[in-house]
Design a protein that fits this description.
Blueprint: H1 3-51, H2 53-58, H3 69-81, E1 85-90, E2 95-98, E3 121-127, E4 130-140, E5 146-155, H4 159-195, H5 201-217, E6 221-225, E7 231-234, H6 236-242, H7 260-267, E8 275-279, E9 282-293, E10 296-306, H8 308-346, H9 350-374, H10 378-393, E11 397-400, H11 411-432, E12 439-447, E13 450-457, H12 488-498, E14 502-507, E15 511-518
Helix pairs in contact: 1-3, 1-4, 8-9, 8-10, 9-10, 10-11, 11-12
Length: 534
């Protein structure tokens, strides 16, 4: 059924319900009006009959069916008042005369009447032929004694009779209501269809079902906000990536305790696409697009993509590039050494050749022995050796502190240690490159189940007002045409916190970064074990 047809059927049902209510009210009002008006008439007629001298004088000793005076007076009162029936009864309730001959000699039905107490009464009395509205008035003699009862009544109209009296008005009401209902249905359906872009209810239902299926089937996250920053749409992927509760739809961002950096991306216009945000341990790419309708902004839609796996691949690629750069630096160094050896041979300095080769070999062996003798984890040792070669090419002295000691660790902790050390060393190399006397010292040690990594550079240090900002995702003091800057320290801090530790910085003749991580057996502690600081 079309939208107009549904509204019309609904309006007709409403009209029918209203009509039934009107009928019930009309019947109740008709009954109340009948009792009020006809009750007064019957009471007046009963008082006239009870005050008649003939009735007062003869009723006390009258016998049922005897004499003609009392029946004449009673019938005269009935005719004049237009009542349905009239009856006179002695004080013992025996009917002496009645407009219904079958009632003579019987007991007068009083119902709830209080006439025997000397007071007039009007009300409904059940008779053999149905309910009747009766008025009872006591008949008093000259001494004030009750000698009988005068009863005047009218037959109570049936429901059909009362309904027949109300039919003309009800038909008028029905006609007017039907016309208004049909017109209202058509106008309402037209307005609603204009607001729903001309779609019928089943089309709207299908559109909503398709939208829900599409949103929750997307691997990318989708979040929609209204102008008051309330969430109107959030699919499963968005809730998972942002850590939103299942009942987040309809709530504003303030009540959900969203991080300021994430709230900024979700609510403010982005100058560039693909904004990177660190959410928990995931690196998420967000794109926000405002929604406009008729020239005004009615909300926004933000799409989210998880780049954690891609970031891992980028880190692996970075490690590969580092290894490549290291190999290139070593190849360059070896080429120079070969040229030196070749020149010494050409000039016949054979003893110098042997001395030069022994010196180059001992330097390389010494570097490898210094690292592997203190760092038993092969991945971390290889990283430090590679960073040493890279630092030498950039004119930086990278030294491993003599007191550094680390046993072999599990694969996950080894991978996270290389992430932390690699980011801290790269950050230190960037800080001291092209400076006089550039030095970077790395201290790695373990105590009480915790591992401490300290990277100390000889650079200018970290300004006091930036000691927390440098760990914020996307913050960087470097200028680069490429994106992805400002996430190394943030990721390093996330890794430390995941292992129950922390990452801090202070200045001591340069920047000193201290990273603390707990082994798996002690990771349940809220704070890392007490470890020695440099």
């Amino acid at each position: 059924m079309s939208l107009a047809g549904q509204y019309l059927r609904l309006q007709l049902l409403i009209v029918f319900a209203v009509l039934v209510a009107v009928v019930a009210i009309s019947l109740a009002q008709s009954a109340a009006s009948f009792e009020r008006i006809e009750g007064r008439r019957a009471l007046s007629a009963a008082e006239t009959l009870a005050a008649n001298p003939t009735v007062r004088g003869l009723l006390k000793d009258a016998q049922p069916g005897s004499g003609a005076a009392l029946p004449s007076v009673a019938e005269s009162v009935r005719t004049i008042s237009g009542s349905s029936h009239v009856a006179l009864a002695r004080a013992d309730r025996t009917v002496v005369t009645s407009s219904d001959p079958s009632q003579q000699g019987r007991q007068l039905e009083l119902g709830d009447s209080v006439v025997m107490s000397g007071r007039a009464w009007t009300g409904v009395v059940s008779t053999g032929s149905g309910d009747a509205l009766s008025a009872h008035v006591p008949v008093l003699d000259d001494t004030g004694e009750i000698v009988g009862i005068a009863a005047v009544g009218r037959t109570y109209p049936s429901v059909i009779e009362r309904l027949a009296d109300a039919v003309p008005n009800l038909l008028t009401y029905l006609g007017v209501a039907s016309v208004l209902g049909v017109a209202g249905s058509l106008l309402l359906a037209r307005r609603v269809k204009r607001q729903t872009l001309g779609m019928e209810p089943d089309e709207i239902t299908g559109l909503v079902e398709n939208r829900e299926a599409m949103l929750h089937g997307l691997k990318e996250g989708v979040v929609a906000l209204d102008p008051e920053q309330r969430i109107t749409v959030a699919n499963d992927s968005a809730r998972r990536l942002l850590g939103l509760p299942d009942n987040c739809v309809g709530k504003d961002l303030a009540s959900l305790e969203v991080e300021p950096s994430l709230k900024e991306v979700l609510t403010e216009d982005q100058p560039v696409a693909d904004r990177l945000v660190l959410v928990g341990e995931s690196l998420v790419v967000l794109n926000r697009v405002p929604i406009r309708s008729r020239g005004r902004v009615i909300g926004s839609v933000t799409t989210l993509r998880d780049r954690t796996e891609l970031a891992s691949l980028e880190r692996e690629l970075g490690t590969t590039r580092t290894a490549t750069d290291t190999l290139r630096a070593q190849a360059h160094e070896f080429a120079n050494q070969l040229h030196t050896i070749s020149g010494l041979i050409q000039i016949g300095e054979y003893d110098a050749v042997v001395q030069f080769v022994n010196g180059a070999t001992s330097n390389r062996t010494r570097l490898n022995d210094e690292v592997t003798s203190r760092i038993a984890d092969p991945a971390l040792a290889a990283l430090l050796i590679a960073k040493s070669s890279l630092a030498a090419e950039r004119g930086v002295s990278l030294e491993l502190a003599p007191e550094s000691r680390l046993d072999r660790v599990d694969e996950e902790l080894s991978r996270d240690l290389t992430t932390v050390v690699g980011n801290l060393v790269d950050n230190a190399l960037d800080a001291v490159t092209n400076t006089a006397g550039a030095e970077v010292e790395v201290l790695i040690e373990e105590a009480d189940g915790g591992i401490t990594v300290v990277v100390h550079d000889s650079g200018p240090g970290v300004p006091a007002e930036m000691t927390e900002d440098i760990f914020r995702q996307g913050f960087t003091t470097k200028t680069s045409s490429q994106g992805g800057r400002g996430y190394g320290l943030a990721l390093a801090r996330v890794v430390c916190r995941r292992h129950g530790g922390r990452l801090t910085v202070h200045n001591d003749a340069g920047a000193v970064f201290t990273a603390e991580l707990l082994r798996a057996g002690a990771a349940g502690n809220e704070k890392p074990g007490k470890v020695r600081r440099p």
